[in-house]
Every structure is written in structure tokens, then in C-alpha cells.
């Protein structure tokens, strides 16, 4: 099976950091409850895509931030 990951290390790290920050903001900062739910949901999506290394939004456009293996064709 072909490797379907389309996210590189820096992309994944950025999503992880921003996702965790959004989740923490939603859980610990006193704001309106609607914004808390949105922050936690967006943060969860970012953390999930970072963990999987797959961004479904990249597929229709053929985008990848992953470096090809050296010597791969």
C-alpha cells in the first residue's frame, strides 16, 4: 500500500502546537461557551491531522509538505 501521508515535520509540529494551544484555551480561559467549543473542536482536528500526518484538504489540490525520500522516483 502506498504511503498516503502528505504532511512534513514542520507542518505537523505547527499543527500540534497550535492545536494544543487552542484546546488549552478552550478548557482554561474564561470566554463565552460557544467560543470554547469551537476552539476545542478546531484544536482537536489540528492535533488529529498532525498525529496522522494526513491533511484531507491537501488531497484535492495535490499539495504535500513532506520531503521525498532521497533517491526515490
Q: How many angstroms separate the termini?
A: 16 Å
* Backbone structural class: mainly alpha
The backbone outline, from C-alpha atoms, is elongated
- Radius of gyration based on Cα positions: 15 Å
What is the helix tally?
2
In terms of DSSP E residues, the strand content is under 5%
Q: Using DSSP, what is the number of strands?
A: 0
Q: Sheet with the most strands?
A: none
Question: What proportion of the residues is helical, as a percent range?
Answer: 40-55%
* Average pLDDT taken over every residue: 88
- Uncertain stretches: none
Return the string of H and E elements: HH
Please specify the SSE layout and strand pairing.
Elements: H1 9-28, H2 33-52
Quick description:
With 73 residues, the chain is an all-alpha fold.
Please describe what this structure looks like.
The protein is mainly α. It has a domain at 16-61. The chain has two helices and no strands. The protein has helices at residues 9-28, 33-52. Helix 1 (9-28) packs antiparallel against helix 2. The longest helix is centred in the N-terminal third of the chain and has 20 residues, at 9-28. It starts with 8 loop residues before the first helix and ends in a 21-residue tail after the last helix.
Amino acid at each position: 500500500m502506498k504511503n498516503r501521508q502528505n504532511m512534513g515535520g514542520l507542518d505537523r509540529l505547527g499543527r500540534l502546537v497550535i492545536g494544543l494551544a487552542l484546546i488549552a484555551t478552550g478548557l482554561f480561559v474564561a470566554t463565552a461557551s460557544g467560543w470554547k467549543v469551537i476552539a476545542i473542536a478546531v484544536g482537536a482536528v489540528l492535533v488529529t491531522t498532525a498525529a496522522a500526518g494526513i491533511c484531507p484538504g491537501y488531497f484535492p489540490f495535490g499539495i504535500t509538505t513532506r520531503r521525498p525520500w532521497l533517491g526515490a522516483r
